[in-house]
Design a protein that fits this description.
Elements (H helix, E strand, L loop, with lengths): L6 E4 L5 H12 L3 E6 L2 H13 L3 E6 L5 H14 L5 E4 L21 H23 L3 E6 L20 H22 L5 E7 L7 H5 L8 H13 L10 E3 L2 E3 L8 H15 L4 H7 L1
Parallel strand pairs: 1-2, 1-4, 2-3, 4-5, 5-6, 6-7
Antiparallel strand pairs: 7-8
């Protein structure tokens, strides 16, 4: 895909693999909307992109807050009349099995909220803009670490560990990907998910106490493949392990589970903004 003048939003792009992806997209001529929580890191990421001749702008939002996610979507709609690619990359790591259960600003289990629900809501809020920009792409950065969702205890109130929370949230991203692909048939918007690389050299991995054994460049190349490769044109609802098409946990292909997750998610996030609904219409 020719990325010149394409507008691309990447969540979690002030650090780690997201920052590398943002830099590469900017160098390829895209207009990059860099997202993060830290303004200083955001400015540094933009400076890197501009030094390569690219165009970038920084948007701040805490994805553990549904209100801030809505604010981020509103900021995107205010800045651009088109969105060619949305990369839902931001996430919270496992922090190990001994991690204490944490809650989002809205009272939801933190990893489910940030790793999955944030992308679900942001995508819903920006879907009309993506459709108006078709052909457009959505990339969900998931993981090979997957755990089937227990719908009787999604927020893990009965039994909690950080690894389980992380793996459940990442599988939720893939269920969402397959489900959304069905809804978007014929729209010109595709959505795919991937595990970029195992234990990349990122802050998230180091905080989990794991010695990195993959580079962020390897993971970035896998993300860029879904975002821009001509071989993915028109293909949707797929899961990749690195550069290879693969299969996720069986629950991702269970229509009842996907429907259950969609209903739960809509209930948790509440109404989609009127602006997005008007654009959708």
């Amino acid at each position: 895909m020719d990325l010149k003048n394409k507008t691309i939003l990447i969540t979690g792009s002030t650090d780690g693999v997201g920052r590398v992806v943002a830099r590469k997209l900017g160098a390829a001529g895209a207009r990059v909307l860099v997202h993060g929580r830290d303004t200083a890191r955001g400015k540094a990421a933009i400076a890197e992109i501009e030094a390569l001749g690219g165009k970038a702008e920084f948007l701040t939002a805490d994805l553990s807050s549904l209100a801030e996610i809505r604010g981020l979507a509103e900021a995107v709609r205010a800045k651009t009349s088109r969105l060619d690619i949305l990369i839902n990359n931001a996430g919270v790591g496992t922090s190990g099995q001994d991690a204490k259960r944490q809650l989002s600003a809205d009272g939801y289990e933190l990893r489910f909220a940030v790793n999955y629900l944030a992308g679900f809501l942001l995508t819903a809020e920006l879907l009309a803009l993506l459709k108006a920009s078709a052909p457009a792409r959505i990339v969900n950065v998931a993981s090979a670490g997957q755990r089937a969702i227990d719908f009787s205890d999604v927020m893990l109130t009965r039994s909690y560990d950080g690894v389980r929370a992380y793996c459940q949230s990442k599988l939720a991203q893939i269920l969402f990907t397959v489900d959304l692909a069905e809804q978007l048939k014929g729209s010109g918007v595709t959505v795919n998910a991937l595990h970029p690389a195992s234990y990349m050299d990122t802050t998230m991995v180091r905080q989990a106490g794991v010695t990195p054994w993959s580079s962020v460049e390897t993971g970035a190349d896998a993300i860029l493949n879904l975002a821009a490769s001509s071989s993915l044109e028109g293909r949707s609802g797929l899961y990749f392990d690195g550069l290879q098409e693969s299969r996720a946990d069986a629950q991702a292909y269970d229509p009842k589970a996907r429907q259950q997750l969609r209903a739960l998610s809509l209930d948790l996030v509440g109404p989609i903004s009127q602006t997005s609904k008007e654009q959708h219409a």
